[in-house]
Amino acid sequence: MMRWREPEEVATAVAARYRRMFWLDGVGAAEWSGRGSIVGWLEDDEPSVARGGDVDGFWTLANRLRADAELWWVGWFGYAARRDLCTLTDDAAVPVTCWMPARHYVVFDAARRVMTAVGATLADVPVSSSPVSAPGPVSRTVTWDERRYATAFGEVQRQLRLGNSYEVNLTYREVVASRDRPFEVYRRLRRLNPAPYAAYLQHDGVAVLSSSPERFARIADGWCETRPIKGTLPRSADALEDAANAARLGRDPKLRAENLIVTDLLRNDLSVVSEPGTVTVPRLMEVESYANVHQLVTTVRGRLRDGIDPVEVARSLSPGGSMTGAPKRRTMEIIAAVEDTPRGVYAGSLGWMSPRGADLGLVIRSLVHDGERYVAGTGGGVTVGSDAASEFAETRLKLAPLLAALGVTPLPR
Question: Is 230 one of the catalytic residues?
Answer without folding.
Answer: yes
